[in-house]
Write a structure and sequence with these properties.
Length: 374
């Protein structure tokens, strides 16, 4: 069904007014999915035109796109996309800043603790003394990552467990906003055996302090990069300080396509949104900015890798992990972040004349507004 933009808008205005508990009928669901397909097709066509402008665009096993130096493509991402996935290790339940793109926006004071002396790995609680048991019972993963809020809030607790996984020869990377990093704790992480560190430079608005910490990290940790949700604020701030950032000699930049959940979507009210494969909802400018960013990197020959960590990449990541876990053909954990579709979030793009559906047709009988559904 190639629903017209006019009909889609009329229906979505109606859906947005429905009580949250009201279920859609089957034909109404078909209207919703037809609209999502039309929007996604239009956005994909726009993105394809941007890709055509990047002569040096490369792909990693058809699972993601990047430009730049092959050997600098982050090994943590290869583990995620080609290996046995990433085992997330969580400890900290706090952060020292609040970013409007954070998935925990508005609830940072209510994150449950992992537990005194414990680590969460694969959803299970472990003491550090249990790591030998864990490694003796499970197949060794190609990589692990330290995620969730800000590890540097209590970074001294991380050194010994990093050392444990280093002894096991497992690749490790860590995420940080970088504002609490110092030469002392970066050196300690490097000495403990951390292989890779990723700075969310957008969280600090490309502050000079974090840029300097990226430079310092390169002295002690082999692979250093930036991973930040691509937003207009980050894009503009980066370009203003581009030379200084590139002068740190970092290895890679992961441009994460911003996807939204119930916590942070209100911070982007009024933006043009699309939904990828009925899963992640994103502002359309996020990946567009990434592709423009990659074009600049390609044209100027930046001495690093720039990775398009898009919704497509995350879809591929979940498929890869499911296949490695031996799940059935086609199984994936890639799903929507919303219990109920936020229909109101798609009204701006349906009202925007600059975004056109590629082809349209009249709704079949029984699908027009005002007709009775059976």
């Amino acid at each position: 069904m190639k629903i017209s933009k006019k009909d889609a808008l009329q229906w979505f205005e109606f859906f947005a007014m429905l009580p949250g508990e009201e279920e859609l009928m089957i034909r109404q669901q078909e209207i919703v999915y037809a609209t999502f397909a039309q929007i996604e097709e239009a956005i994909e066509e726009r993105n394809n035109r941007l890709m055509d402008e990047i002569p040096g665009l490369k792909n990693l096993a058809k699972r993601t796109l990047y430009v730049g130096e092959d050997e600098k493509f982050p090994k943590g991402c290869k583990s995620c996309l080609l290996g046995t996935g990433l085992s997330a290790i969580r400890k900290t339940n706090r952060c020292n800043i609040e970013c409007k793109f954070c998935y925990n926006y508005g609830e940072l004071d209510n994150i449950p603790p992992v537990g005194e002396g414990m680590w969460e790995i694969g959803g299970t609680k472990f003491y550090e003394k249990d790591i030998d048991l864990l490694l003796s019972t499970y197949r060794k993963p190609t990589g692990v990552c330290y995620v969730y809020l800000e590890p540097f809030m209590e970074i001294e607790k991380y050194y010994s467990i990093v050392g444990r996984f280093k002894e096991a020869k497992i690749y490790q990377h860590l995420y940080t906003n970088g504002t609490l990093a110092t030469e002392e704790n970066l050196k300690a992480l490097g000495e403990a055996g951390l292989d890779e560190i990723r700075f969310n430079l957008g969280a600090a608005a490309c502050s000079d302090k974090v840029i300097e910490n990226i430079r310092i990290a390169k002295k002690y940790i082999k692979n250093v990069g930036i991973e930040t949700p691509m937003t207009p604020e980050f894009f503009d701030a980066f370009m203003k300080k581009k030379d200084r950032i590139l002068d740190t000699k970092l290895d890679f930049i992961n441009c994460a396509e911003l996807h939204l959940n119930e916590n942070n979507i209100g911070n982007y009210e009024g933006e043009n949104m699309y939904i990828a494969r009925h899963g992640y909802i994103s502002p359309i400018w996020s990946r567009e900015l990434t592709l423009k960013f990659m074009k600049t990197a390609d044209e100027e020959g930046w001495d690093l890798a720039v990775h398009d960590c898009s919704n497509h990449t995350k879809f591929a990541r979940n498929l890869n992990l499911s296949s490695k876990e031996g799940k059935w053909f086609g199984a994936s954990d890639y799903v929507s972040e919303f219990a109920r579709t936020p229909f109101e979030a798609f009204l701006p793009i349906l009202r925007d004349d600059s975004v056109q559906f590629l082809s349209e047709e009249e709704l079949p009988e029984g699908y027009k507004a005002g007709e009775m559904f059976f």
